[in-house]
Design brief:
The protein is α/β, with parallel strands linked by helices. The chain has 10 helices and 14 strands. Strands 9-10-11-8-7-6-5-4-3-12-13-14 form a 12-stranded mixed beta sheet. Strands 1-2 form a two-stranded antiparallel ribbon. Strand 3, helix 1 and strand 4 form a beta-alpha-beta unit. Helix 1 packs parallel to helix 2 and helix 3 packs parallel to helix 5. The protein binds S-adenosylmethionine (SAM) and iron/sulfur cluster.
């Protein structure tokens, strides 16, 4: 990796890193079985979280020095962080060196979105991904440990009404859990004009019980959906989701095949945890700290150096399914999905 005047952060394999995922909290109001255990989570203390000003400074450095154009806020559940629209407003004001707006997005479980969607849109949020793994109330309660399906559905409608564009619904597909709902989920998404996206179940669950047999491969997902809704694949660039446009032109759906067809070759992401650690991969086993720099009068050069070091050590790809795969110590909610 070099900062060679091209204004790009380039890793050891020549991939340009330009997409930042920021976890703004490790806390959550749900307990999705594939993400965190029902009991016993130890939350970060409030002072350990990066402040909005610290987050803003990091994003500014990445935009100015490395032409980052896209930032996604996630968690834990980002909407449980107080004053979220304020952070969105701060980040939305940052322009790219070419004067473009930042592509600013959010991933949320949608539970309180009915109350927040228009504030987020007004604050400058561009687009939104809402997680929804089932349309059946009993299953929803079993999966999330919360009786909140009605609120998530209202939140999805509120996001559409607020004009967030596009609205995507993320569904983690698990064998024997919700793999019989793929077509229903697509039908629901098409009816309200949002994009359904299916995600292969990854070994980042809270209780470490993931097994390959629980993964429904992307090929099977596509086959099941297109039997009911014929669709053709289109180019997806560096988007990890393979995209399929319906033959009747009523929208599209996507599949993220992180396990069976990893997209590491095209990965342009880097992650910042809520407590100020840089992770160069979802599955990274090492992290680099920037909170000490942010709180210790470190310079922007110091910050940039840590990002460069992190990019330099980014591996070619994860090895889920291989004997040498090491599961990260943190679960998905602690990393920021
Ligand atoms: N709380 C927010 C939400 O649920 O959308 C944002 C954080 S969540 C960790 C981000 C995304 O990661 C969600 O779409 C969730 O479904 C997905 N996710 C969590 N654990 C996963 C796992 N083990 N495998 C695949 N996706 C997972
Ligand atoms: Fe919370 Fe999102 Fe994890 Fe579910 S997937 S427990 S909503 S952080």
């Amino acid at each position: 990796m070099r900062q060679d005047g091209t204004g790009q952060l380039i890793d050891a394999y020549g991939r340009v890193v330009r997409d930042l995922r920021i976890s703004i909290t490790d806390r959550c109001n749900f307990r999705c079985s594939y993400c965190m255990p029902e009991e016993g989570m130890k939350w970060l203390d409030r002072p350990e979280l990066l402040s909005f000003e610290e987050i803003e400074r990091v994003v500014k450095v990445l935009i100015e020095r490395y032409n980052f154009e896209s930032v996604r806020l996630t968690g834990g559940e980002p909407t449980v962080r107080a004053q979220l629209p304020l952070l969105v407003e701060k980040l939305a004001k940052l322009k790219t060196p070419s004067g473009k707006d930042l592509d600013l997005s959010l991933t949320t479980n949608g539970a309180t979105l009915r109350l927040l969607a228009s504030d987020l849109k007004n604050a400058g949020l561009s687009r939104i991904n809402i997680s929804l793994d089932t349309l059946r109330q009993d299953r929803f309660i079993e999966l999330t440990k919360r009786d909140q399906l009605h609120n998530v559905i209202s939140g999805i409608h509120a996001a559409v009404e607020a004009g967030l564009q596009p609205v995507k619904i993320n569904t983690v597909v698990m064998r024997g859990v919700n793999d019989d709902e793929l077509v229903e989920m697509v039908r629901f998404a098409r009816e309200i004009g949002v994009i359904a996206r299916f995600i292969e179940f990854m070994p980042l669950d809270g209780d470490n019980s993931w097994a390959p047999s629980q993964v429904v491969p992307a090929t099977e997902i596509v086959q099941k959906v297109t039997e009911s809704f014929p669709a053709k694949q289109i180019s997806h660039g560096s988007d990890p989701a393979k995209r399929y446009v319906f033959d009747d032109q009523k929208g599209e759906f996507g599949v993220i095949a992180s396990v069976t067809i990893p997209f590491c070759d095209a990965c342009d992401r880097i992650r910042l945890t809520a407590d100020g650690k840089i992770r160069n991969c979802l599955f990274a086993v090492e992290e680099q700290d920037i909170k000490t720099i942010l709180r210790g009068n470190g310079s922007d050069d110091d910050l940039a150096q840590v990002f460069e070091n992190s990019a330099k050590s980014k591996w070619a790809g994860h090895s889920i399914g291989n004997v040498n795969f090491i599961r990260p110590k943190r679960s998905m909610s602690q990393i920021g999905g």
